[in-house]
Amino acid sequence: MTRDGRGERATSDLARETRRCGIGTISREEVPWGWRLGRRGFLALMAAAAFFRGGVKREAFAATSVRGRSRVITVHDPRASAAGTGFDNADVDADVVRGMVQEGVLAFTGARDLQTAWRQIIPDPAKRVAIKVNCQIEAVYTKSKVVQPIVEGLLVAGVAAGNIVIYDMTDHAFHLAGFRRNSGPGVKVGTVSDFGGYSRFYNHRLARLLCNDLSGGLLPLPGVRFHCDYLINVPVLKALDGYCGVTLSMKNHYGSIANPGEHHKDIMEHIPLVNSLPEIREKTRLVVLDAIFGSYRWVNGRDQKYLSRVDRLLLSDDPVAVDAVGWRLIEKLRKENGMAAVAPPPRYIQRAAELGIGVADPSRIELVQITM
């Protein structure tokens, strides 16, 4: 990617600011998980955004989606996983991935700068944002280096650090992913139980942090310290042989309900049902599929022998379209590794389309491919 002198200096300033205030080294009172966005960092981020577009190859696309169609942005940079030889967060180049997220957000929104782009995604920055990650198993998980630039974008949009929460059902892979649990001031990170647990009776036992506060805050539910208004979904690219074929954005919300184990037999119907809930469907503003690495065969635990470097991110506000495109990526990986198609096929994707959650038909998905 090429930039002129001003863009290079701005990017350098941003990198220094991020290193100075990076994960584990910043003020715990300010942003315990992320980095404190001071005036210098904010200006550097804004300046860099204006120059991240130079030298990037992309297909032409309209500024807005055509009615009845969905847009999926796929950003590819082979340097994304060049920081190491493994398949973990430590092997990801944070600066490269930051550029991928920024470019993807600009392309998805059609905005000319990051502040405008993120304010399109989060129209009211005074509200609270939940980020659903997938850290269930230690082999493949959502990486903090993918989530970090999303948090930075929210801060640029004006969302207060204390109004951002990153969550999953468990924290099994947090130590590998680069997340540190925090329920105090600043960006919050933890499990559903840290933020009020799951509803016992409401909406298929949904996480209470996603449940609407019908009292407007006058009668908050006991133990619920965070009600989100917006939702960002950051799943991983993973096959799920024997269950639903693949686990991508929609299956990620099995971590948003208390009893996923009770819904393996009816998984093809229950995944669309969960994603049709207003608390998920109406709050979702963005899906960022972390496909830096891809799991093309399901293995539980820490075994990473069925992972490949994909070096991609997929962005959309349509989880059905993301899953349709992600499924094809997994099938490509399986074919390259001499494996048959996933079984069973992920019928839940078409079922979700039939329920009107999104678009599954490839002819109605506008796929914008960006090479960094």
Structure description:
- By secondary structure, the protein is α/β, with parallel strands linked by helices.
- It has one domain.
- It is 29% helix and 17% strand.
- Strands 1, 2, 3, 4, 5, 6, 7, 8, 9, 10 and 11 form an 11-stranded mixed beta sheet that branches.
- A hairpin with a 4-residue loop joins strand 7 and strand 8.
- The longest helix has 18 residues, at 319-336.
- It is globular.
- The chain starts with a helix and ends with a strand.
- The model is unreliable at 1-40, 48-55, 58-66 and 215-219 (pLDDT under 50).
Notable traits:
single chain, 372 residues, alpha/beta, eleven-stranded mixed sheet, 29% helix
Can you lay out the helices and strands and say which pair or pack?
Elements: H1 5-20, H2 39-49, E1 57-58, E2 70-76, H3 94-109, H4 114-121, E3 129-133, H5 144-157, E4 164-168, H6 174-177, E5 188-191, E6 230-234, E7 236-240, E8 245-247, H7 267-276, H8 278-281, E9 284-295, E10 307-316, H9 319-336, H10 348-354, E11 365-371
Helix pairs in contact: 1-2, 3-4, 3-5, 4-5, 7-10, 9-10
* Mean pLDDT, all residues: 85
Query: How many domains in all?
Result: 1
Termini, distance in Å? 6 Å
Helix content: 25-40%
Tell me the Rg in angstroms.
19 Å
Name the structural class: alpha/beta
Strand content: 15-25%
Number of strands: 11
Q: In this structure, how is the largest beta sheet organized?
A: 11 strands, mixed
Stretches where pLDDT is under 50 for at least 5 consecutive residues are: 1-40, 48-55, 58-66, 215-219
The outline comes out as globular
